[in-house]
Design a protein that fits this description.
Distance between the termini of chain B: 40 Å
Largest sheet of chain A: none
Structural class of chain A: mainly alpha
Oligomer: heterodimer
CATH architecture of the largest domain in chain A: Orthogonal Bundle
Largest sheet of chain B: none
Radius of gyration of chain B: 25 Å
Shape of chain A: globular
CATH class of chain B: Mainly Alpha
Number of domains of chain B: 1
Number of strands of chain A: 0
Order of helices and strands of chain A: HHHHHHHHHHHHHH
Helix content of chain A: over 70%
Strand content of chain A: under 5%
Radius of gyration of chain A: 25 Å
CATH class of the largest domain in chain A: Mainly Alpha
CATH topology of the largest domain in chain A: MetI-like fold
Strand content of chain B: under 5%
CATH superfamily of chain B: MetI-like
Number of strands of chain B: 0
Chain lengths: ~290, ~300
């Protein structure tokens, strides 16, 4: 059973070596394209067009950023994006937690029906109803407004169920005793449940922030006027030259990569928090009825 | 009477639920019904078109372009499904063997990163690194003596593999973290018992770790199945006229028919067929992997 300890040791380290190499290759595959983008974005127009593997800016220059931000006015879609993301995320978190709170009350009449109604919406991908959604937005006069983008995905069954699962971990006796003291349901929600659920709120807020920031299909469907473009839409016409939205302009690599960097920065800023709450969110979401 | 009393007692709760229910009715249930009605009509710009039964569905099913996007969707999504299922397990098993926690954390951080980015960002990066003039991949290929640049994104033979590879690049890290979270929660005594029996690294992976990951595998598989027919952004960003025939999928077909060509009846019929297929696939998968049992 003991075998030869020395031989065993050797085999382990050989395995560890291969394993480490595999992961190293993986890391390089993931990270080199990103470094490449970063390096080119900080190069001058001319050097960004020259051949060669670029992992460091050839001649440190912010001309790409200047051009994309000011000349091409990426600041406008950027701030549209900020607006839609902030309002959309705040409303999403509030509505999802409100619904989640309501659904923890065991005596609520019709709770089962409401839960199944919410779960059915999770089975219907927004893409599959894009045509009627377009028509609904048109009929409500929402086409070509930023409001249509805030409304798209304003509530999701996933967030509601996640918040409900989080609230279920708060002892229900707290709600009951507050009720005895004459507190209204909304007050209990605001004063008892919300403060005790900061990690849960943070989780859906971060998820929602990321998906809002990246929201593309609704913008593609509903937005026409360039001054209402969101970041992803503007980026699309920047990187795909034969796209219908672009006027056939030619953009140097450093300009395109600067645009990509600008779209990535807010996501990179919140990334440490996303990492912190990600697993928690998954575990909550996976808890079944 | 009693029922009414309880409803009345909780009226503020219903009030809090009201915006959510109204939202779902206007933006999910009504569009579902409306979409189905449109799919049965001959679409007219003004006024209501006459009902034509399942004519639109027949037209979609007879459309060679729809047949082509069906093949494309299943080839691309099938590839993403299989590779995207197996590869993250390999990475997770491999990462689990890493002893240095700094290296482990760093790897996790790096591989999860692209999942945060939109398909416009990821597509932009891929278009850039695959570019024939000075793109990263072609530059690296010159080290191996390749003189002529490969025009990756306009070559039909590369089109589908590139779709699959870019999807894996974006999302493998995410799935991998799900597995890692499951591995962490495996009872250590199982490994101790395996050690006592003299099991090696690979045997422990095969007989301890993998079986313990089955519940996570089921969730991942089901989530992926539910998503495969809806891919849109990725293809919209990476497709171009040279490879459209190889990569256009259900949702780009719907978008093109409905929004660009204004054939709303046809587009809605196609979308409903996709919805039906998704439900069917989900149902069959749930049964096959016995999702509802022993979870």
């Amino acid at each position: 059973m003991q075998g030869s300890p020395k031989k065993y040791q050797k085999r382990v380290s050989y395995f560890q070596l291969c394993n480490g190499l595999f992961l190293l290759v993986l890391i390089l595959v993931m990270i080199i394209p990103l470094i490449n983008v970063w390096a080119v974005s900080f190069s001058s127009g001319i050097s960004s067009m020259e051949p060669g593997v670029k992992l460091w800016p050839a001649d440190f220059s912010v001309s790409g950023y200047q051009r994309v931000w000011q000349t091409l006015e990426l600041w406008r879609p950027f701030f549209n994006n900020v607006l839609v993301t902030v309002i959309g995320t705040a409303a999403h978190v509030l509505l999802a937690s409100m619904a989640g709170y309501v659904l923890i009350h065991p005596k609520l009449v019709g709770r089962k029906i409401i839960v199944s109604m919410i779960m059915i919406t999770m089975m219907v991908p927004a893409e599959a109803i894009m045509i009627p959604l377009y028509i609904v937005n048109k009929e409500l006069g929402l086409l070509d407004t930023l409001a249509s983008l805030v409304i798209s995905g304003l509530i999701s069954g996933f967030s509601i169920l996640l918040m409900r699962n989080y609230f279920l971990s708060v002892p229900y006796s707290l709600a009951e005793s507050a009720q005895m003291d004459g507190a209204s349901d909304f007050k209990i929600f605001r004063k008892v449940y919300m403060p005790m659920s900061v990690p849960g709120l943070a989780t859906i807020m971060l998820f929602e922030f990321v998906s809002r920031w990246n929201q593309f299909t609704p913008a593609l469907l509903y937005i026409n006027s360039p001054e209402k473009y969101t970041l992803q839409l503007a980026l699309m016409s920047l990187i795909v030259p034969d796209d219908a939205t672009s006027s056939g302009d030619f953009f140097a690599n450093n300009v395109q990569m600067a645009g990509i960097m600008i779209a990535m920065i807010p996501l990179l800023v919140i990334y440490p928090f996303v990492q912190k709450y990600f697993i928690r969110g998954i575990n909550l979401g996976a808890t079944k009825e | 009477m009693n029922l009414w009393k309880t409803v009345k007692r909780h009226y503020s709760l219903y009030l809090m639920l009201l915006p959510i229910l109204v939202y779902f009715i206007i933006f999910t249930y009504y569009p579902l019904v409306r979409g189905f009605i449109i799919s049965l009509q001959e679409f007219q710009m003004i006024g209501r078109g006459p009902f034509i039964g399942f004519q639109n569905y027949l037209e979609v099913l007879r459309d060679p372009q729809f047949i082509q996007v069906t093949i494309n969707t299943f080839m691309i999504s099938g590839g993403i499904l299989i590779v995207g299922f197996v590869f993250p397990i390999i990475i997770a098993l491999s990462l689990n063997e890493v002893m240095q926690s700094v290296f482990k954390r760093f790897t996790q951080t790096v591989i999860y990163l692209p999942h945060l980015f939109s398909w416009v960002i990821v597509g932009g990066i891929w278009i850039f690194i695959l570019s024939p003039d000075g793109g990263l991949i072609n530059e690296i290929l010159t080290w191996f003596g390749k003189e002529e640049s490969i025009h990756f994104l306009v070559r039909e033979d590369y089109a589908r593999p590139i779709m699959i590879a870019s999807a894996i690049w974006k999302d493998a890290g995410y799935t991998c973290i799900l597995y890692l979270a499951a591995i962490v929660s495996i009872n250590p005594s199982l490994y101790e018992a395996a050690d006592m029996d003299g099991a090696g690294i690979l045997q422990k992976m095969r007989y301890v770790t993998l079986p313990q990951l089955v519940p996570t595998m089921k969730i991942v598989l089901l989530l992926n199945i539910m998503g495969i027919l809806r891919i849109f952004d990725q293809v919209y960003v990476l497709s171009n006229s040279a490879i459209a025939n190889e990569v256009d999928v259900f949702m780009t077909y719907t978008y093109e028919k409905g929004i660009l060509q204004f054939q709303m009846g046809i587009a809605s019929a196609a979308a409903f067929l996709v919805l039906l297929m998704t439900l069917l696939l989900t149902f069959v998968t749930r049964k096959l992997i016995r999702y509802d049992e022993g979870m």
